[in-house]
Design brief:
By secondary structure, this protein is mainly alpha-helical. It has 19 helices and no strands. 49% of the residues are buried.
Length: 497
C-alpha cells in the first residue's frame, strides 16, 4: 500500500527532513564516488574509459529519446491516483524496452563507424541489457519523490554507491579493463533494483492502462521530452564529437574532466533540488512561498557551489601531480578551463527544475535550443582548433548562455533579487581566482603537499571570510532559519513560517 501524500501544511517539515536525509546521503555517496573515481582512474587507461563512454552515450541517447518525459510529468501531475501510477508504470516500461531493443539491433552498424573502438558493439549490448533493470527502477524512484519519501531515496543512493565502489575498482584491480566499468554500472543498477522491488517497494508492479491518463502524459510529456533531449545533447554532444573526431584517448581525458567539473552539482545541487523539486511543484499556486523556497535553494547552491569550484580548480595542479598516474595528467588544464562550468552548472539546473516543476517546460526548451545553437558550432570549432581544451571552453560558453536565459524565464515565475543572489559570491570567486593566479609564481618553490595544504586552508578561509563581511546579516538569518526549521522538525511542531 502506498504511503499517503502529505498535506500542504506538512510540506515544509517534509522538505527540511528531506534535506537532512538527502545531504547526509549525498555526503556518503560523494565520498564513495570520489574514492571510486580515483581508484578507477588509477587502474585504467584513458582509452578504456573512452570506449566505455562512447558505448554508454549511444545507450543513454536511446533511453533518453524513449523517455517521453514521463518521470517529470508524473511528479508534476496533481492528485495522481492508483490508475495514474499503473498507467505511468506501463507506459514507461513499454517505451524503455522498445528503444533498448532498437539500439541493440543498431549496435553492429554503430560499431562499423568506429573501427578504432575495438569491442564497441559488445559494450553497447551489455549496457543495453543492464539498462533494462534501470528502466524498471525509474518509476519506483519517481513514486518515492512524488510522496516526498526522501529517507528511502537516501538509503537507495547509499546502497547503490557502496555496490559500485566495491565492484568497479575490484574488477579493475583484477585486470578486467573496460569491463570493470560495465561491472560498476551493473552493480549499482542491480543493487537499486533489488531494494526497490524487494524491500522498499513503493509500488507493487502492476500493469494497467487508462486512456485519458495516457493522453495527459503524452500531452505534457511532449514538451518535457523535447527539453530532456535538448538537455541530453547539451550534456553529451561534446563527448560524442570528441570520441568521433579525436579518438578514444582524448575522449577518456575529456570525459573524466567533465565528470570532475560536475561534482559541485552532485555535492550541492542534486541533494538540494531532489528535495525542492517536488516542493516547487506543490507550491506552484503560491507565488510568495514558491519565491521564498526558490531563493533559499538557489542562494545555498550559489554560495556552496562557488566554494567547491574555487577549491577544485585552484588545488587541481597539486592534486593531479600527487594522486593521478602520468597518463591522466593532460586532464588537468582541461579541468581548470571549466571553472565557469563548474560554478554555473548547478544554478542552471536549479532554474530548469523550477520551470519544469511549475509546468513551464516550453521555457526550458526555448533556452535549450539557443544553447544548442551556440554549443554545437563552438564544440566543432574549438575541437578542431584546440582539441579537448577548445571543447572545454565551449562547455563554459554554453552553460553561461543557459544561466542567463533560464534565470530570465524564472523571474516570470518567482520574485527574487538578482544582486542578493549573485553579486557577492561572483565577486568572491573572481577575486580569489585572480589572487591565486598572482600568487602562483611565489608558490613554485613549495613542495606539492605543502602547497596543497596551503590552498585547502587559504581558499575556504578567504571565501567564507569575505562573504561573512559583506553578507553577515543574511548569513546569520539563514542559519537561524535552518536551526528553527530543524528544531520544529525534531520536536514534531507545526509548519514553519
Amino acid at each position: 500500500m502506498n504511503d499517503p501524500v502529505p498535506p500542504p501544511s506538512e510540506i515544509a517539515r517534509h522538505t527540511v527532513r528531506g534535506s537532512v536525509y538527502s545531504v547526509t546521503a549525498s555526503a556518503i555517496t560523494i565520498g564513495l564516488g570520489l574514492l571510486r573515481t580515483y581508484l578507477m582512474v588509477s587502474l585504467l587507461l584513458p582509452e578504456q574509459v573512452g570506449l566505455a563512454a562512447l558505448g554508454l552515450f549511444y545507450v543513454e541517447m536511446s533511453t533518453q529519446v524513449g523517455s517521453l518525459g514521463l518521470n517529470t510529468a508524473f511528479i508534476h501531475k496533481p492528485d495522481a491516483g492508483p490508475a495514474d501510477r499503473r498507467t505511468y508504470y506501463t507506459f514507461h516500461l513499454l517505451l524503455g524496452a522498445g528503444v533498448l531493443g532498437a539500439v541493440s539491433l543498431a549496435a553492429p552498424a554503430i560499431a562499423g563507424f568506429y573501427p578504432q573502438f575495438d569491442g564497441l558493439q559488445v559494450v553497447i549490448w551489455l549496457y543495453a541489457g543492464i539498462s533494462l533493470l534501470s528502466i524498471a527502477n525509474q518509476p519506483q524512484v519517481a513514486f518515492l519523490e512524488k510522496d516526498l519519501r526522501f529517507n528511502r531515496i537516501a538509503v537507495l543512493d547509499v546502497c547503490g554507491a557502496l555496490a559500485t565502489t566495491v565492484v568497479g575498482p575490484g574488477l579493475a584491480f583484477l585486470g578486467f579493463g573496460v569491463w570493470a566499468i560495465l561491472g560498476e554500472f551493473a552493480a549499482g543498477t542491480l543493487a537499486r533494483f533489488t531494494l526497490l522491488h524487494f524491500w522498499i517497494r513503493p509500488f507493487r508492479p502492476r500493469l494497467g492502462w487508462d486512456r485519458a491518463t495516457a493522453g495527459w502524459f503524452w500531452r505534457y510529456g511532449r514538451s518535457v521530452w523535447m527539453n530532456s533531449n535538448l538537455t541530453f545533447l547539451l550534456g553529451y554532444f561534446d563527448d560524442f564529437w570528441v570520441g568521433t573526431t579525436l579518438g578514444r584517448g582524448p575522449l577518456g581525458i575529456y570525459n573524466k574532466a567533465y565528470e570532475f567539473s560536475r561534482y559541485p552539482r552532485r555535492v550541492v545541487a542534486n541533494p538540494v533540488l531532489s528535495v525542492f523539486f517536488p516542493t516547487f511543484a506543490y507550491l506552484q499556486g503560491d507565488r510568495t512561498r514558491l519565491s521564498r523556497a526558490f531563493f533559499r535553494a538557489a542562494s545555498l547552491i550559489v554560495r556552496l557551489g562557488g566554494l567547491f569550484a574555487l577549491v577544485a580548480v585552484i588545488a587541481a595542479p597539486e592534486v593531479f601531480r600527487l594522486f593521478l598516474p602520468e597518463a591522466w595528467l593532460p586532464m588537468r588544464p582541461v579541468f581548470q578551463l571549466m571553472l565557469a562550468y563548474t560554478f554555473f552548472d548547478p544554478l542552471q539546473l536549479a532554474a530548469r527544475r523550477l520551470l519544469l516543476a511549475t509546468g513551464r517546460p516550453g521555457e526550458v526548451v526555448r533556452a535549450g535550443w539557443v544553447q544548442l545553437a551556440v554549443f554545437v558550432p563552438a564544440v566543432v570549432a574549438g575541437g578542431r582548433g584546440f582539441g579537448v581544451a577548445g571543447v572545454a571552453v565551449a562547455a563554459d560558453l554554453m552553460v553561461l548562455v543557459g544561466v542567463i536565459l533560464l534565470f530570465r524565464a524564472a523571474s516570470r515565475v518567482v520574485d527574487y533579487s538578482p544582486s542578493a543572489l549573485w553579486l557577492w559570491p561572483v565577486v568572491a570567486v573572481m577575486g580569489i581566482t585572480v589572487l591565486a593566479v598572482l600568487a602562483a609564481p611565489g608558490m613554485r618553490g613549495l613542495a606539492d603537499p605543502w602547497s596543497l595544504a596551503l590552498k585547502l586552508t587559504a581558499v575556504p578561509a578567504l571565501y567564507a571570510g569575505f562573504l561573512y563581511l559583506v553578507e553577515r546579516d543574511q548569513l546569520l538569518t539563514g542559519v537561524r532559519m535552518i536551526r528553527g526549521l530543524l528544531g520544529r522538525v525534531s520536536s514534531g511542531g507545526g509548519e514553519p513560517s
